[in-house]
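Dataset card, provenance and construction

Sequences and ligand SMILES were collected as paired inputs. For each pair, a complete structure of the chain with the small molecule in place was predicted and serialized as structure tokens. The example below shows a pair involving guanosine-5'-triphosphate. Curators did not alter the output after generation; any descriptive sentences attached to a record were derived from the structure itself.
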Amino acid sequence: MAIQWFPGHMHLTRQAIMERVKDIDVVIEVLDARLPGSSANPLLLEMTGHKPRLKILNKQDLADAAQTKAWLDWYNAQSETRAIALDASEPAPTKRLIEQCKLLAPSRGGMAKPMRVLICGVPNVGKSTLINSMSGKTQAKTGNEAGITKIEQRIVLADDFYLWDTPGMLWPRIIVEKSGFNLAASGAVGRNAYDEELVALELLIYLQKNYAAMLDARYRLGLDAAEIAALHDDELLTLIGKKRGAVMSGGRVNLQKAAELVLTDFRDAILGRITLETPAEFEAWLAAGQIKDAERQAKKDAIAAKKRRPPRPPREEGSAAKPAAKPAAKPAVKAAPKPAPKPETKAAPKPAAKSGAKAVVKTASRPTAPRPVKLAAAKPRKSRSR
Ligand SMILES: Nc1nc2c(ncn2[C@@H]2O[C@H](COP(=O)(O)OP(=O)(O)OP(=O)(O)O)[C@@H](O)[C@H]2O)c(=O)[nH]1
Ligand SMILES: [Mg+2]
């Protein structure tokens, strides 16, 4: 099951960005440092790829520092991509960001050619918070929930430096299943668009393998890394629920509550600093997602081609010529167990396309009188059950 969330305001954001980008000098894409691959929006790349771009791995205070470094190296090794890491605790990111923008668009600056910067990214990643800390005032609304900013907003940083805050946007079809789960775990997906239990289980699978010591420390599991890794994800969630008191009357664990606890502990870094993907893992997921998507598309195309009507044969000998193609396909399967010659002779006088096929089935089934057999089989079953 893939997670998808592309509500109406994202359609509008897509249009607004498409319009705005024409007059933009630098595009800043804000990524979540805990999922730097999954939070990179392919739709944004498609729309803004022709402009100088800076990627900010935001919320680095929540991410695994070693992984953040690996991701920065990975992004900065790509041509025409610059990436830096940041978090809201940095008191004045402005200077650093202005420097980066000037490097990316050196011809801009001064009153005649003000620098125009578009800030975009997935929901809840910290775009508006970043803009506020850059401007030194609370100009953009922020909140710990996906979809706080609803419309584009211009912020004047200086007379020759403008910023545009945009609403968080995902993309219509997330083909990397794991990315959908990681986005949901991070809080970038609306609450109603995913099942918390499934997202928490997926998260636990990654944490079991990569951050078992943190799970043990937070939930006092009393298990070593190998024992934690060996648990089934369901068992682990149940154990966490027990340890954290998410228990219903009768002693059953409330898995929904346990899932919410795990997600909150991850989102607020109560578990510790965690990154949910390495560059190599993300590359592998992406490649697998692309193959799966291509297969899906090929299947869709095949079904569409089947549905498409074959070209009409020439009508020289009247309507009797029409059914030649259809009866050949259906009777071949349905009439196979019964003697073949009879249907052919009986079907011949009624040549319409549909009746040709039906005639074969009817002539084959009539002599065996199926109805009485069905009734006889049904009655004794009822009486047995009583
Ligand atoms: N720990 C941490 N939290 C941050 C950081 N930046 C933003 N936040 C928090 O993340 C939440 C979302 O911040 P916003 O600035 O509203 O995010 P946004 O990207 O504008 O969200 P939308 O408008 O919904 O797309 C808020 O609770 C912020 O306080 C950061 O660097 N570190
Ligand atoms: Mg916002």
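Derived descriptions for this record:
Residues 279-307 form the longest helix (29 residues).
Residues 127-128, 140, 148-149 surround magnesium ion (ligand 2) (CB under 6 Å).
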